[in-house]
Amino acid sequence: MTNNTLPIITLKKGKTESLRRFHPWIFSGAIAQLPRDLQEGDLVEVNSCNGDFLALGHFQNGSIAVRILSFERCNIDEDFWRKRIREAWNLRQSLQLLRNDNNIFRLIHGEGDLLPGLIVDIYGHTAVMQAHSTGMHRSRETIAHALIAETQGIVENVYYKSDTTLPLDTTSDQREGFLIGNTQDETATENGLTFHIDWLRGQKTGFFVDQRENRALLEKYSLGKRVLNMFCYTGGFSVYALRGGANEVVSVDASQKAIQLTEENVALNFSSTTQAVNVSPDSRHKAFTEDAFHFLDKLPYPDKAGNEAKSFDIIVLDPPAFAKHRSAIRNALKGYTRLNLAAMKKIAPGGILFTFSCSQAISAEQFRLAVFTAAAQSGRHVSILHQLHQPADHPINIFHPEGEYLKGLVLHVE
Q1: Is 93 part of any domain?
Q2: CA 230, chain centre distance (Å)
Q3: Does one domain contain both 322 and 354?
Q4: Nearest CA among 362, 344, 410 for reference residue 383
Q5: I need a surface site. Which of 13, 163, 216, 252 has the fewest CB within 10 A?
Q6: For residue 142, what are the CA distances in angstroms to 23, 135, 159, 179, 279?
Q7: pLDDT in tens, 341-376
């Protein structure tokens, strides 16, 4: 698309400062004038009240009115998309994420890769694309072909998964399905472990790619331990703990579908002749469909042999986002405190607690304060061993601190 006749959005006086600091969002309150007949997803030019050029971006109805694609004049065409994807691919290559033992990683992370509104995760030879803006949705075919062209023959299939992320009023004849290619192979490899990727019905793009390094850290702590994985989803933490030599791993999720995925992933990586109720192909693993708070309230839980109830040595708390919007922050912080307090009360002396927040609206300081409050209320001595965050394939644009969404702490509880 050439930019010769783009609609122009004019900002109010005094509302250009964030753009001059290269923040990639323009909020609706900063706009002085919208052109007539502007459609959601249109490519627009953004000017100051004096008529000075500031940026190019996608227009969207809502609080975030424009997502910036370029702070320089350029054509947003096939070459533009290929260049941005090539730069992202080269970064992932330099991070050595594509290896014989690893073919799961994030290729495009929105603002962090200068493509706000676009997520692309790689699972083997399949790229799963997710649009969070109508502009990216309208460019999906061009982006899909650019993915094939710029990934050195690795990506052969592009699956589009945007039904839950696009605005409800986005007109579309396709929000789900293959844009290029097709495949029945829904498995991929992370650090030598095999996972079933449910990009058709699963959350996000089918797998939580952002916890790769944190799962590997849990593995190092797991030898000989009893591990409880709350909100297990696809069982990633559980599978790593089993490989790490845990004596027992218990996975809990309120979703029966999540428990099924967890069991499938345990079966992909481990085998056992034990076939009992609630017991995976690896006899060290059990899984339960239950509310997290109810399960924690019932602890301690008998060990795998049915012996006297014992506390867990390691507990993982990786809940879904408690706050998706700023209006929910207060209740979310109460939820994080309540959840961590329940775990701290029940974990074994000398236990290790992995606790996370994936809410973009919650800052690292707010999350840490919520956990601090839980520690104080528990009456136990708690110390921080690690402060965790999203991995390098989820880069944070330094001009967009909102991109730092994943926060985690590894705690030692006396």
Answers
A1: yes
A2: 17
A3: yes
A4: 410
A5: 13
A6: 25, 12, 13, 10, 46
A7: 999 999 999 999 999 999 888 999 999 999 999 999
Q: Residue 271: what are its φ and ψ, rounded to 5°?
A: -140, 155
CA–CA distance from 390 to each of 130, 154, 256, 313, 403 (Å)?
Answer: 19, 24, 27, 25, 10
> Is residue 198 one of the residues assigned to a domain?
no
Q: Assign residue 376 the CATH number of its domain.
A: 3.40.50.150
pLDDT at residue 290 above 50?
yes
DSSP result, 1-64: ---TT--EEEEPTT--HHHHTT-SEEEGGGEEE--TT--TT-EEEEE-TT--EEEEEEE-SSSE
Side-chain half-sphere of 375: how many Cα atoms within 13 Å? Answer: 18
Question: Within a domain: residue 371?
Answer: yes
Percent pLDDT > 70 in the chain is: 93
pLDDT of residue 390: 96
Cis peptide before 391 (omega within 30 of 0): no
Which tokens in the block code for residue 98? Answer: 């594509």
Q: Which domain holds residue 28?
A: 8-70
Domain co-membership, 177 together with 30: no
Q: Are residues 13 and 92 in the same domain?
A: no
Task: Tell whether 59 and 92 lie within a shared domain.
Answer: no
